[in-house]
Amino acid sequence: MPSELSTATSVDLTQHHKPAGFSDHFAYGFVKFLRYFADTFFAKRYGHRAVVLETVAAVPGMVGGMLHHMKCLRRICDDGGWIRTLLEEAENERMHLMTFIEIANPNWFERLLILIVQGIFFNCFFVLYLISPKTSHRVVGYFEEEAIISYNNYLAEIDAGTLENVPAPKIAIKYWNLPQDAMLRDVVLVVRADEVNHRDVNHGFANDLSNPSINLEEAQQRNAQPDA
Predict the structure, then answer these.
(1) Which of 49, 75, 76, 197 has a Cα-to-Cα distance from 157 of 20 to 30 A?
(2) Running DSSP on this structure, what letter comes out for residue 9?
């Protein structure tokens, strides 16, 4: 697999879904609420922020994939590729966590915070997905938009020399097929590119489910069809 550094800088960092309707505004407000607490608690400690927030980011894909899996089993229907996409997203976010654990080395309080935040968020997101998959995917889309902003700021601090550009962890070099001499800045670039992809995928899923003439199964089938 070729190195991902070559494409990590060519992604669209500015795309934003303008909220439309109650569902979108709820999702946007909820994410901004989480952003406020993250900014208050972590400030510019971006490595530690990433450790905690990536534990949250790894939840939606697993929850969505699991619920789609169970629904397809009950209805004996195809998933249109959604399950694999969502589970791969969860795995990718977990690798973000494993990478930043090596960089930030969280203390005991942050590890406790991870347990608490993950427990609360998992149950809240599970219930939300049962009620409205569309809103759930919009939440993730906005969450990823905020993640892109955070990683932009992370890069700015590295480039300014405020944060040390340390060597990339071995786990990151192996996972993203980075050069052996890759640095932290390279890691942040590829992680940010992952978040851009998750943003686009989840806003795309939410857009499909926003069409009142398309139900969940029809949206899945449409995503399963190859492009003409």
Answers:
(1) 197
(2) T
Which amino acid makes up residue 115? L
Length of the chain: 228
Instruction: Specify the pLDDT at position 176.
Output: 95
Instruction: List the CATH code of the domain at 22-209.
Output: 1.20.1260.140
pTM, 2 dp: 0.84
- Retrieve residue 202's tokens: 């989840």
φ and ψ of 14, to 5 deg: -105, -10
Q: pLDDT tens for residues 203-222?
A: 999 998 887 555 555 655 55
From residue 6, alpha-carbon distances to 10, 122, 174, 176 in Å are 8, 34, 16, 11
Neighbours of 11 (CB within 10 A): 17
For tokens 């139900």, what's the residue? 215
Sequence spans of domains, the chain: 22-209
| CA 76 to chain CA mean position, Å | 29
So what's the pLDDT on residue 132? 94
